[in-house]
Write a structure and sequence with these properties.
six-stranded antiparallel beta sheet; alpha+beta; globular; 20 strands
Length: about 325
């Protein structure tokens, strides 16, 4: 009996994994295209766990189509209530710590969701997509795609795409020195599906979202009016592929300290930089806070600049950005 059981296991394994080398059903690019189509077209509910520095954060993502509209609901299942509602290109943000608001032409926060909408042509300019065979997630066969960064200044990623539907069901953020033979050795953050339900009809929640009374819509141009104010800072170095996307002046939420704000992006990852000039110049100091793959680095430069860099980038990249910044009045 034991021999028969072992034979059955071997048979199942060879059916699902006939060959790691030959387990590709298409190019990595076509798999990514199918992933985005699945996200855009299917009615589904995905429960996932985000793992970061020993902390587990369960979330539930529900998406569906009703009367020509697309609805998405993302909710955090633990801790303080936080949820997001998306109706076509309008996203409402709800958090127990502040009142809700709706932004037009915005998306759900996080890499997991940005991958579903980002231009693949833009993605391929910064990452090499490589098919890496098959694996299993949620008890289902998944096709694995690695996104290898073309620069060591930002992370790489491993995606598991459900073979039956094409949906993204697992995502690892990995350090750039990870090699092909051991993709899990340097995982800094992970989102993994634990339950998936795909249906022909949208769930009852989608019908509730259609009738929901959401906060009034604010356009991004209202939040960041154009032309944006030119800030008195000079960036001496940026990671390859990153560029300045927006800049403005505002106050920090807790301290009400006025700061200059600059947002950098490579299209997939955003980096926020907060700058304030202080007097007199002080001794160089640094403070580092890490949450998974996201680093918050504060640098007090000898030129009297208080600089904070926040983003899902390696700490050395954040440090190089901060140390390259000078005030335009500086010699």
């Amino acid at each position: 009996m034991k021999k028969q059981g072992l034979s059955a296991v071997i048979l199942i394994f060879t059916c699902f994994f006939p060959s790691v080398v030959l387990a590709e059903d298409g190019s990595a690019s076509s798999l990514l295209q199918r992933m985005q189509r699945a996200y855009q077209q299917l009615n589904f509910e995905l429960t996932l766990i985000e793992f970061s520095q020993g902390e587990l954060e369960p979330k539930r993502l529900t998406r569906g189509h009703l009367d020509g509209q697309v609805f998405t609901h993302l909710t955090h299942l633990n801790g303080r209530p936080r949820e997001f509602v998306q109706r076509d290109d309008e996203t409402s943000f709800f958090d127990a710590s502040h009142s809700g608001y709706t932004l037009k032409n915005s998306n759900l926060p996080g890499l997991f969701y940005r991958l579903q909408n980002m231009s693949l042509d833009a993605l391929h300019t910064k990452y090499d997509a490589v098919s890496a065979g098959r694996s299993r997630v949620l008890g289902r066969v998944a096709q694995v795609v690695r996104l290898v960064p073309k620069s060591n200044d930002y992370y790489g990623y491993v995606l598991w795409l459900d073979q039956e539907t094409g949906l993204l069901v697992k995502l690892n953020t990995i350090s750039t020195d990870t090699n092909a033979s051991n993709v899990d050795a340097h995982v800094v953050e992970q989102s993994m599906g634990v339950a998936l339900k795909v249906s022909d009809q949208p769930s009852p929640l989608i019908k509730e979202l259609k009738a929901a009374n959401l906060p009034a819509v604010i356009s991004v141009s209202d939040v960041y009016p154009a032309p944006q104010q030119q800030l008195p800072w000079r960036f001496g170095w940026l990671p390859a592929g990153f560029e300045l996307r927006s800049q403005d002046k505002h106050k920090l939420p807790l301290t009400e300290q006025p700061v200059d704000y600059v947002m950098l992006s490579n299209g997939l990852v955003d980096v926020s930089v907060y700058l304030a000039k202080i007097q007199p110049p002080a001794e160089v100091k640094q403070q580092l806070v890490r949450e998974g793959g996201t680093h918050l680095l504060t640098v007090l430069s000898p030129a009297g600049a208080d600089i904070t860099v926040v983003g899902a980038i390696p700490v050395e990249t954040a440090r190089q950005i901060a140390e390259s910044i000078t005030h335009r009045d500086a010699p």
